[in-house]
Amino acid sequence: MSTAPKLLQWVGVPFMCLVVIVVVRTVTFPSYQTRPPPCNATDQDFIPATRDRLDRLAGAVTFRTISYEPGRGTPEELLKFIAFIGDSFPVLHSSPLVTREVVGNFSLLYRVEGSDSSLNPGLLAAHLDVVPVTEEPGWEAEPFSGQQKDGFVYGRGTIDDKHNVMGQLEALEFHLKRGHRPRRTLYLAYGHDEEVSGYYGAQKIGELLEDRGVKVEFVLDEGLTVTKGLVPGVAKKVAMVGVAEKGYLTVKLSVRMKGGHGSMPEKESAIGILSQAVANLERNPQPNLWGSGPERDLTEHLATEMSVLHRVVTSNLWLFTPVMRWVMTQKAGTNALSRTTTAVTRFNAGIKDNVIAPEAVATVNHRVHPKHTIQEVLDHDVKVINDPRVKVEVVESLVPAPVSPSGPESPAYLAIQESIQQIYPDSLVAPSVMIGNTDTRHYWNLTSAIYRFSPNVMGPEDLARFHGVNERISIGDYERTMNFYFHLMLNVDRPLVVRRHEHDGDL
Ligand SMILES: *[C@@H]1O[C@H](CO)[C@@H](O)[C@H](O)[C@H]1NC(C)=O
Ligand SMILES: *[C@@H]1O[C@H](CO)[C@@H](O)[C@H](O)[C@H]1NC(C)=O
Ligand SMILES: *[C@@H]1O[C@H](CO)[C@@H](O)[C@H](O)[C@H]1NC(C)=O
Ligand SMILES: [Zn+2]
């Protein structure tokens, strides 16, 4: 008697079942993408990037509104920029619907009164300040010139974040000029020190709104962009909407030992012990959390748009999560989405060639995954260092941002998604996590629906322009920025309710 058929029965039947489930799920996995009517340059309400609009963006870039450190910025430049904004948008600034407050001396808070007080206000945010220009050579245009060249506007702030400030104001100006009377109240909040944590700008705005008991329907601030060639298996452009921000934790490690002359060393030194601690941290990374946070949603929102093999995997995360966990942590970029990262950023010890260092100090910078707590990260460090002689101290920390809802169940997210797809009809939209931080940390108490998105396109080669040399925006992208905000203002100017549609057929 042969056991082969029996074995086949035991192994083969479950295996075939598995294959069937995987195939059925792959074929029936719901699409999260939408196809709203695209914005067309021939539309009556299209905002073209005319010379005067481009000149206003260029004008905004000429103000050197640099933030150096918390509390140390460029007051005169900020005041000039604020005056420039006042002069640039006469309709908005004379409209009886609009009030403007200067908060913390240099930040701006606009309120556009809606006619329907049953609708919670919306809040669009951006910031007035920029990072410094370093001595690095290679700028193809003066960094504060706003020069237009080869279809781009060059200069510090063109993608961080004056395009958003000016794009929102252009859209609102255009709206009001057309006689639009909004139903939903809209706030525009422009902090002046975002690049150095927003303690004097956005934080004051957040506190002011909270004191007034304002609850908003959603916040949209700067953030992730429309990306090209970043998601494996996806050929189209992907607009990523930040639904969370990683937190951070900076830890100081120190070891103190008896110093002494280099000629008669003890067995162990402060440097040796600290080196061991640092090596342990690098050898034992923080846990792999891929699949527990918004990085899972990113994958599922794109599943139906992927090439076949990727699609099979991403439609079946119930089965393939372990595979994804391994794959995603192989490269630094995707690893950063998958876990709390550990970067040893400083290591100092030693005073003289022939003297044993009495102290060694290192700094470790963690970026904390949205599903991780600061305490868990710290506990892991202490456990893997496993040496009481290494003192572990917290220098500073920020808890990860609460995860905002995404997908068909969250109407504010959908309004943003549809606005993006009107402007970029050939682009997909998916939620993702921001590694860096924005002013939104100061708005957590105003709403649970906080999104971070900037409507310009960034290819892998453009990432270095951000806070770097040759920061620039294409004229096409700036035009899309203005029209994105225009459409968003229209799309949220109605009750935002969950709409039932085809996504409900999920297996
Ligand atoms: C834009 O509108 C024009 C004329 O109304 C039409 O011919 C064209 O196909 C439209 N383009 C898109 C992308 O819808
Ligand atoms: C704002 O300006 C006033 C008067 O110039 C000054 O006393 C105050 O300290 C400033 N406040 C901030 C937050 O800079
Ligand atoms: C939010 O509210 C809590 C509780 O009132 C307060 O402790 C916290 O500072 C507020 N957070 C922000 C970002 O304003
Ligand atoms: Zn910014």
UniProtKB/TrEMBL annotation:
Ranges for domain Peptidase M20 dimerisation: 243-387
Keyword Amino-acid biosynthesis: no
Keywords: Hydrolase, Membrane, Metal-binding, Protease, Transmembrane, Transmembrane helix, Zinc
Membrane-spanning segments: 7-27
Summary of the function given for this chain in its UniProt record: Secreted enzyme that regulates the endogenous N-fatty acyl amino acid (NAAs) tissue and circulating levels by functioning as a bidirectional NAA synthase/hydrolase. It condenses free fatty acids and free amino acids to generate NAAs and bidirectionally catalyzes the reverse hydrolysis reaction. Some of these NAAs stimulate oxidative metabolism via mitochondrial uncoupling, increasing energy expenditure in a UPC1-independent manner. Thereby, this secreted protein may indirectly regulate whole body energy expenditure.
Family: Belongs to the peptidase M20A family.
Protein's name according to its UniProt entry: PM20D1 protein
Taxonomic path: Eukaryota, Metazoa, Chordata, Cephalochordata, Leptocardii
